[in-house]
Amino acid sequence: MSHFKDFIIIDDDSINNKLCRKIIEKTYPDAEIIDFTDPQEGFDHIAKKYSKTDSDSKGILLLDISMPVMDAWEFLDQFEKLDAHTKNRVKIHILSSSVNKQDMARAQSNKNVEYYLIKPLTKESIRLIVHVLNKRLGIESND
């Protein structure tokens, strides 16, 4: 598949998380997928798993914007405080139902955000994400 086999979904909508999981599973059957409805739990998972120096796993994060307790902007503020090793191993993609141009511009201006995707996730969009990330790493993929 690719160097990116881990997918993390953070969205307070469990139905969206299930939909994303199904699309990723159908597109990449060998993918490791974990989802969180609590952004803090998702952040803690990322901070713990991707800070390990004995692992080279990389993850693709699909992050919703509007969530109670911690929204995407607060999440990104916390993410920015992580060490460079950890941040380089997680590629963040905003996955939102918001078509607000201010949200899109804010996401695009954040150096830790790769893309802004409009819900729902599709096979084509997940393939594009993986293809672009692989191309940046010089990895040939069949996507």
Characterization of the model:
Helix content is about 45%, strand content about 20%. With about 140 residues, the protein is of the alpha/beta class. The chain has a single domain (about 5-135), classed as Rossmann fold (3-Layer(aba) Sandwich). The chain has a 5-stranded parallel sheet with strand order 2-1-3-4-5, sandwiched between helices. Helix 2 runs parallel beside helix 3.
Strand order in the sheet with the most strands: 2-1-3-4-5
The total domain count is 1
Number of strands: 5
Structural class: alpha/beta
Q: Which residues form runs of ≥5 with pLDDT under 50?
A: none
Shape: globular
Distance between the termini: 8 Å
Largest sheet: 5 strands, parallel
CATH architectural category: 3-Layer(aba) Sandwich
Order of helices and strands: EHEHEHHEHEH
Fraction of helical residues = 40-55%
Mean pLDDT: 93
The CATH topology comes to Rossmann fold
What portion of the residues fall into strands of 2 or more residues?
A: 15-25%
Which homologous superfamily in CATH is the superfamily? Answer: Response regulator
